[in-house]
């Protein structure tokens, strides 16, 4: 039943996408509103098809229908219900199904949102573009990424279940869907960018249509990346949260270009500048999401996050090449009409700061992209397998990151067009004092090291500037002082500052050691006292867990463990973390007691002290909250009533 229902739904989605393309295409050519309205109705058929296919897959997973090849490879009768449900996006074909479901949802929301503009060619071309994308992904599911293939031969009685790393923490239920909401969400602004180029409506109108779509996609991607870092920290047992893994980079690169767009779009709205730049950023962001899909789903990368090798890689790479080619052709075609009517009057202005900000984000994205794909290019050209690791990324991106922190403090204080030295010094006085106070407190507290102290100083500078803007907005707007694009942007800035400071602290001041302890023995590290109490062995339906009982600082007992899954070749570590405002105590069971060893009761326990880790997650939460506040319409003030000495809150930007 599931195979028939699912396969039928996938075919229905593909047919509806193709019919939508043809109907809207003919309607646009003939300028026929009836055909345009009829073509838009296929969006609801596509959404229904995606929901039916998803229901069929989840039904097969929950019922353990091992006649489906996907369920036989990724399902198990012993897997807990939560991880049985999340098994849909734990492997290649299911992840494409989730992508199609999210894309169909965005398409339906778009059609409903613009339901009163059926005859608008801009909306028509945007809808047609999204139909092309849905046709591609439904086409993948009718071919090499078909999730409803049947097993050949006898139906197995059980399966191995999802990858052990994907059934070891509940974050797997949130991280991939949120990441996909971000990835796929950029399809809508991309479609409007294409429509603007095709129709020649290259003013600022299409920006207004897509501002919130872009902002929400960016927010979802931000939260997805932060949750991915948290999942890595909580599950993988290595004590870190970001390793410049190629698949991590695949989501980070479009985030960088989208962040650049979120900033520079305000320059176009205010001054009519950076038109080519903004279109290029939107087109590049969507292109990079497709490139990221290729990197994670083609099998070309060795990563804990990547899926196994498959035949869809060339198809996705070809789709990526098509998108890039179409984008370049459209921009070249409309090049003469994309000239900006305004120019930058002074580099010491808000538009000048935004331009510098964009250049830095583009450089950041290029550095990360180069380090990610260079090993693939080298292997393709001469067969050499090389790796680009953390030292390259840290060395190349560090100066860019510090400069961006500096600009985060400077840009909100700058007026449009030109700034005087007197005005700038007045607006930056309190942020500068904040930076000095932060450094003084750190030095008095015994912290040393140029790089982390520089990060703390710039964080204090940028944080002080953001707080200053929020205080001014609260004075002018009362309780609505946090609502609106500029004010929400300042909340996002505070989140970025917390992440930057926590990142610097955790890298500069962490301590780690492995202790061999017998029951009752204790050890100390960086002011924390750990006592090993013994081990427990528990058998669950899908795994056997060997956990160590460790008391931290004379209080609660924590249980780092080694999990052994039936079909896994090696044990999976499961850390246990005591989280605090000042630092985390991160425990791992490196080796359980070995009865054949000289000390049969001794276990090897890894202890890692990570400073300020809680603030990293709080910073991610602030970025999500700030995104929501920025998407909410703020109350605008009339220009004559605003004090001359201060910028209007709604014009302060998120630079």
Tell me what you see in this structure.
With 655 residues, the chain is α+β, with helices and mostly antiparallel strands. It has 4 domains: 1-162, no CATH class; 164-383, no CATH class; 395-509 and 616-651, no CATH class; 511-613, no CATH class. 59% of the residues lie in helices and 10% in strands. It has 19 helices and 10 strands. The strands form 2 sheets. Strands 2, 3, 4, 5, 6 and 7 form a 6-stranded antiparallel beta sheet that branches. The longest helix has 33 residues, at 350-382. The chain is flat, with a radius of gyration of 27 Å.
- Cα-to-Cα separation, first versus last residue: 53 Å
How many helices? The count is 19
- Give the biggest sheet: 6 strands, antiparallel
Uncertain parts: 304-308, 636-655
Helix content: 55-70%
Count structural domains.
4
Per DSSP E runs of 2 or more residues, the count of β-strands stands at: 10
Based on CA atoms alone, the radius of gyration comes out at 27 Å
Q: Give me the oligomer status.
A: single chain
Give the arrangement of secondary structure elements:
Elements: H1 2-30, H2 33-62, H3 69-74, H4 81-86, H5 92-113, H6 121-142, H7 175-185, H8 187-199, H9 205-235, H10 246-271, H11 275-297, H12 313-333, H13 350-382, H14 390-410, H15 421-427, H16 429-444, H17 450-477, H18 485-508, E1 511-517, E2 522-525, E3 528-539, E4 544-552, E5 557-558, E6 561-564, E7 572-574, E8 576-579, E9 583-591, E10 603-611, H19 613-631
